[in-house]
């Protein structure tokens, strides 16, 4: 096989063009967003939150109660945790049906909602969790007064796909009829 100069030059030129085109495409694809792109991204992330009160008005009335978990936030921000809990009623009476909104946070964004969220009431009954987006999950519970202690709790266990687990208690008071 003889050395063919035109074929070799063609090979080198083709390789150089391929390298330049690959670099340009990668540079364009991974470029930092400019002010317009950042603004559009911010609008896209905030816009759905404006519709949240319209879709779920029971959590935005004047008759709600917001509670923080008993435990402090975890030191590792990638550990999933509950920021706050909103009950659809300020005064919860024995036998009431209460909607509960959980504000969930996981900076690693690897908490699967609702499969990574487990909620149990003070009677150890597992409650169905419904994902409502934007870092929120909802449950519905039937309040049951405990004869020993009217201060009851929800126990929320969050497990992300990386195996990080966090269990938090949410206290609330159930009044007798």
Task: Summarize the structure in words.
With 177 residues, the chain is α+β, with helices and mostly antiparallel strands. A hairpin with a 5-residue loop joins strand 9 (151-159) and strand 10 (165-175). It folds into two domains: 5-54; 57-175, Macroglobulin (MG2) domain (Immunoglobulin-like). Helices cover 26% and strands 33% of the residues. It has helices at residues 5-29, 35-55; strands spanning 65-67, 81-87, 92-93, 97-105, 117-120, 126-127, 130-133, 136-142, 151-159, 165-175. It has a five-stranded antiparallel beta sheet, with no helix packed on it. The chain has a five-stranded mixed beta sheet with strand order 3-10-9-5-6, with no helix packed on it. The chain is elongated, with a radius of gyration of 26 Å. It is built from two helices and ten strands.
Compose a concise summary of this entry:
26% of the residues lie in helices and 33% in strands. By secondary structure, the chain is an alpha+beta fold. A 5-stranded antiparallel β-sheet has the order 1-2-4-8-7, with no helix packed on it.
Features:
elongated, 2 domains, alpha+beta, five-stranded antiparallel β-sheet, 10 strands
SSE map:
Blueprint: H1 5-29, H2 35-55, E1 65-67, E2 81-87, E3 92-93, E4 97-105, E5 117-120, E6 126-127, E7 130-133, E8 136-142, E9 151-159, E10 165-175
Parallel strand pairs: 3-10
Antiparallel strand pairs: 1-2, 2-4, 4-8, 5-6, 5-9, 7-8, 9-10
Contiguous low-pLDDT stretches (5 residues minimum) are none
Using the alpha-carbon principal axes, give the shape.
Answer: elongated
**Mean pLDDT rating:** 86
Order of helices and strands: HHEEEEEEEEEE
């Amino acid at each position: 096989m003889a050395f063919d100069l035109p074929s070799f030059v063609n090979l080198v030129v083709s390789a150089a063009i391929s390298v330049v085109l690959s670099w340009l495409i990668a540079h364009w694809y991974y470029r930092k967003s400019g002010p317009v792109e950042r603004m559009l991204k911010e609008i896209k992330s905030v816009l759905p939150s404006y519709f949240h009160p319209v879709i779920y008005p029971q959590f935005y009335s004047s008759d709600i109660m917001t509670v923080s978990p008993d435990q402090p936030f975890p030191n590792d921000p990638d550990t999933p945790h509950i920021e706050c809990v909103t009950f659809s009623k300020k005064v919860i009476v024995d036998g009431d049906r209460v909607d509960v909104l959980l504000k969930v946070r996981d900076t690693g964004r690897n908490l699967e909602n609702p499969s990574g969220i487990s909620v149990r009431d003070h009677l150890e009954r597992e409650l169905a969790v419904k994902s409502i987006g934007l870092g929120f999950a909802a449950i519905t519970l039937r309040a049951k007064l405990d004869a020993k202690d009217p201060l009851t709790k929800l126990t929320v266990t969050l497990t992300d796909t990386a195996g990080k687990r966090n269990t938090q208690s949410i206290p609330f008071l159930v009044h007798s009829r």
